[in-house]
Structure formats: C-alpha cells, structure tokens
Specification:
The chain is α+β, with helices and mostly antiparallel strands. The protein contains 14 helices and 16 strands. Strand 3 and strand 4 form a beta hairpin. The structure holds histidyl-adenosine monophosphate.
C-alpha cells in the first residue's frame, strides 16, 4: 500500500480504543461531580488566537503550529491546545459578562509539529478543564486535585505532582532581571535561547536543548512578592488538606506564556522521557488579553496517550474486557429469517442476561462449514446454530468455538 498514517499520528483500535473511551468516561464523571460542563470548540481557529495566547516566543508558536490559509486567504491553525479556544469561546458567547464564573471541560485532538517519539505525537488527545471567575487559591487546589483524581481513577498511582508559582506582574519583572543576569554569563546557549534571552528569559528554563546544562538556576519562589507568596502557601496548605502529595519545583515554568502564579505538572515514573502526563496552572490575564472582561482562570489538561501508557504499566488496559463475540449461524437457509430475528433480539436483551456481547450473523447463501470458518477467523467464542430438527423442538445448538464442544439449549431460555 502506498499510504501510511502521517508521521507522528497513529490509529487507535482494540484495547487502546477501549482504554481511551473509558478514560474519557471516567474523566467526564469526575468533571461532572465537580460541576464542570462540556464544551466542544472547533479543531481549527484563527492562528493569531494561539500566537497571542500561548506567546510569540514559545516553541509551540515558533515551530510547532500547523498553520494554513483557507481559500479566502484567512490564516488558520489546527489547535495546539485547548485553553486559548475555551477562552475565545468564553468571550465570544459573552460569558465573561453574563456569568463571569464557569467550569468547563473538553476532550479532543490537538496538533503540534514536534519530533515524534514514544509519548510525543503530532496529533494527540487532551482532556482538560478550565475554571473561570475565581482568583482563590482554592480553585488552584481544586484543579490540581481534580487532575490527580482522574489519574488515580485509572489506578495510576506512581505520580509526582510538581508545583511552582510564577508570581504576578508585580514580582515577575524582578525575577526576569535575575534570570537575564544569570543566563548572560552562561556559555554555549542554543540559538533559541540566545534569541529569547532578552525577550522572554523564562523560556530558557524549559528549553529542550539547554535546560539540563544549567546548575544553581535562580528559582521563582525566592522572588515572589508577599501576596504571591501567601497565595502559594495557601495552595500548598489546601493540597495538604486534600491529601495530595506534591513537591515544589522552583524552576518549573511551563511551555506557554499565559500563566501567572500557580503552575503544575504531574509526571509519571512509568513512561520514559515524555513523563508529563498532565499539566496546567493559573492564567488570570488571558481573558482580558483576548479582549474580554478581566476574569481570573485556572485549568489543566492531560495527554490521553501518555495517560494510557501510564495506565498500561499498572495493568489497567489488561483488565479491560472486550465483549464476548457471539455468532448466529444457520444450518438450513430457510431458517435465515428466524435466526435474523433472534440475532436482533440478542443485541437488545443480551445473551444469558449478559449485555457485554457483540453479535455477528446470520449470513445467508453460505454453507454451515464456511459460516463456521468465518466465525473462527473473526475470533468468535460461541456460535449459536439454527438447525431444522432442533429448531422444530424449540432448541438451538451452542458451539464453543475454542474447545469445539456443542450443547443443545431451549431458545426461550437464552
Ligand atoms: P501542555 O503542557 O502543553 O499544556 O499540555 C498538556 C499535556 O498534554 C502534557 O502534559 C502532555 O501530557 C500532553 N501533550 C502535550 N504535547 C504532547 C504531544 N506532542 N504528544 C502527546 N501528548 C502531549 C497545555 O496544553 C495547557 N493548555 C494546559 C492547561 C489547561 N493550562 C491551563 N489550562
């Protein structure tokens, strides 16, 4: 075949597809209990929305966005993340004015032109939640515990919650100055870091090339103003109250520019170098920056593929039971209609009261032998055979396709 899934994308099927559905289902249940409502935004948006929200000098905007022009020359981008789209929708539907408080969640595909490797894809799924209208540290703690709850609901327990505070417009300029001074004396900076040093020195802290070279890097927590310090202390107090273990990581800055104050990343020990399975933080200026009424906000997103990799390591995917496959076959063509009606009833009512089944057949115009061959090929576990003599006595044959044993059962007992 001449075609393959594009580099960095993948087809999801079998247990992984089941796992993904279950992850979404569990996340949705937990979100609803916390009062979050679902929002679906378009997969592409005005490219400028992302440039403005995520930041001109971030990796995502500089080199990872899928940008294209439509037939009218509009510059659009496949969404690289969900926060900017949600903020755009929040403002567009005037929720910043009518109900400047809201809890929303989303699930969907995101696109980033990154170098693919295990856990890093060009098309991936995020499940995220955004809480608008509260500047209370309780909202930060709720978002962090919410992210953790979704992960633990899948049995993922070996996780490390890293938190930091990036300060506010008052204290961050001082930290930037300290960083510029620190990095100006660093040798051997990559081209990106050299370029970003003057404009956005925080970016150097999470440069994929350089960040491992730096030692004794200044930490944000040493430069917070008293309000930000108090705020960060309350977030930590609440996390302790909620039994959520965490560690303060003073160099955690995140790869998007809209954050202020609390940021966090949840990492898993079980999945290799791309270990951030969920991340987020506070972004109090974004709604205003995009033209809305000033509205504080905090949120997170998890990477579904990475979460499933972590879930696999704790056996979560092994425990997912595929439904039992049952085939309805006919020994004589004249029983096709009866078998068809039975098959339809079984889809509705289940087999022996078990509704975790998938029903195949009947197929007309084929010998019983070729029907059974087909059933073997599609890994059927039981075949119900409609045969004339048994049917006239109100019975069918049930063939166990694994050990090839066969029993007779009354139809109305199934
Ligand atoms: P992010 O850290 O860029 O944050 O992405 C969140 C999560 O998406 C990551 O922790 C990771 O699990 C997953 N992820 C990111 N890139 C890839 C990739 N190339 N392949 C597979 N998984 C990936 C955001 O996107 C923010 N919008 C999160 C947020 C929501 N902040 C506030 N609200």
């Amino acid at each position: 075949m001449d075609y393959k899934a594009p580099r960095g994308t993948h087809d999801i099927f079998g247990t992984n597809a089941l796992g993904l559905s279950l992850l979404e289902q569990k996340a949705k249940e937990i979100f609803r209990r916390h009062g979050f409502e679902e929002v679906r935004t378009p997969i592409f948006e005005d490219a400028a929305l992302f440039t403005r929200s995520i930041g001109q000098t971030t990796d995502i905007v500089e080199k990872e966005m899928y940008v294209f022009e439509d037939r009218k020359g509009r510059k659009l981008a496949l969404r690289p993340e969900g926060t900017a789209s949600l903020a755009r929708a929040f403002i567009e539907h005037r929720m910043d004015i009518s109900s400047p408080a809201g809890k929303f969640f989303y699930c969907g595909e995101m696109f980033r032109y990154e170098r693919p490797q295990a856990g890093r894809y060009r098309q991936f799924r995020q499940i995220g939640a955004e809480l608008y209208g509260s500047s209370s540290p309780a909202a930060d703690a709720e978002i962090i515990t919410l992210a953790k709850d979704v992960l633990t609901s899948l049995g993922i327990d070996k996780i490390n919650v890293h938190i930091n505070s990036l300060g506010c417009d008052k204290c961050r300029p001082l930290f930037r100055k300290v960083l510029v001074k620190y990095f100006s004396s660093a040798k051997d900076l990559c081209q990106d870091c050299l370029r970003r040093l003057g404009k956005n020195p925080l970016r150097l802290l999470d440069c994929k090339v350089d960040s491992c070279k730096f030692t004794a890097v200044p930490e944000t927590s040493d430069y917070l103003c008293s309000e930000c310090k108090d705020n960060f202390n309350i977030v930590q107090f609440l996390l302790k109250k909620a039994d959520c273990q965490y560690s303060v990581n003073g160099t955690l800055v995140r790869g998007l520019d809209y954050y202020n104050r609390t940021v966090f990343e949840i990492r898993s020990d079980a999945i290799g170098s791309q270990d951030a399975i969920a991340a987020g933080g506070r972004y109090d200026n974004l709604v205003k920056e995009l033209g809305g009424q000033s509205t504080p906000a905090v949120g997170f997103a998890l990477g579904a593929e990475r979460v499933l990799l972590a879930a696999q390591s704790v056996g979560f995917l092994d425990s997912l039971k595929q439904s039992e496959k049952i085939f309805v076959a006919i020994a004589e063509q004249e029983l096709f209609g009866e078998a068809f009606a039975f098959s339809a009833k079984m889809v509705k009512d289940g087999f022996n009261n078990d509704k975790n089944i998938s029903v195949f057949g009947p197929i007309n115009g084929k010998s019983l032998t070729s029907q059974l061959k087909f059933a073997d090929k599609i890994q059927i576990s039981k075949t119900i055979v409609f045969a004339k003599t048994e049917f006239e006595n109100g019975k069918v044959l049930i063939k166990n396709m694994k050990d090839k044993t066969q029993t007779e059962t009354e139809i109305n007992k199934l």
